[in-house]
Amino acid sequence: MLIGKQLAFRYPHHNWIVRNFDIAIAPSEVVGLFGPSGFGKTTLSKLLAGYLTPTQGQVTIDNSPLPDRGYCPVQMVFQNPELAVNPRWRIRKILAEKQPPDRFLLNALSIHPSWLDRYPHELSGGELQRVAVARVLNPATRYLIADEMTAMLDANTQALIWHMVLDYVRSHNIGLLVISHDAALIKRVCNRAINLMQVGTSR
Question: What is the DSSP letter of 181?
Answer without folding.
Answer: S
